[in-house]
């Protein structure tokens, strides 16, 4: 796992944290931005997708907007229910800055967002296998799960 923030100034996955934390062991892996205020979901997604992808998690709309202005991602996994705004507002910015990025929308409460991205999964995900299959299809990487869930 990598964390670009000094440990003395950054505490990952805390409520007051608005910055990004990244996970990867392969620099050439496709980059995934996970925008979700649910820190447990962020850990699950990172555990499932690393090392085949580089996962960066941000918990707020503002942090996602700032990151998208600086960095490129192959996939954005987006929960529209964010503490500082509607995650759907991020889609227009994403298309302006990174038109080729795919978007996996997932939500427990917003059925109107089902068609807003490249794909949709209900939250919580039905299974790790379903999440992996959807992400691997969107990124065009192998469909076999790297590690079977326990």
From TrEMBL:
Q: Which UniProt keywords apply?
A: Phosphoprotein
Q: Which InterPro entries match?
A: Bact_response_regulator, CheY-like_superfamily, Sig_transdc_resp-reg_receiver
Tell me the residues on which 4-aspartylphosphate occurs: 79
Response regulatory domain location is: 31-138
- Name the domain of life this protein comes from: Bacteria
One GO BP annotation is:
phosphorelay signal transduction system
Q: Is-annotated flag, keyword Phosphoprotein?
A: yes
Record-given protein name: Response regulator
Protein's organism: Duganella alba
């Amino acid at each position: 796992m990598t964390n670009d923030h000094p440990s003395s100034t950054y505490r990952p996955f805390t409520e007051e944290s608005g910055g990004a934390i990244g996970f990867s062991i392969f620099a050439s892996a496709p980059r995934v931005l996970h925008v979700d205020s649910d820190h447990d979901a962020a850990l699950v997604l990172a555990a499932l997708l690393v090392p085949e992808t580089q996962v960066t998690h941000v918990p707020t709309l503002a942090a996602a907007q700032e990151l998208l202005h600086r960095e490129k991602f192959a996939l954005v996994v987006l929960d529209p229910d964010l503490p500082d705004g509607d995650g759907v507002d991020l889609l227009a910015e994403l298309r302006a800055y990174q038109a080729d990025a795919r978007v996996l929308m997932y939500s427990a409460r917003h059925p109107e967002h089902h068609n807003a991205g490249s794909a949709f999964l209900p939250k919580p995900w039905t299974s790790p296998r379903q999440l992996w299959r959807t992400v691997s299809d969107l990124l065009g990487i192998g469909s076999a799960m790297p590690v079977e869930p326990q």
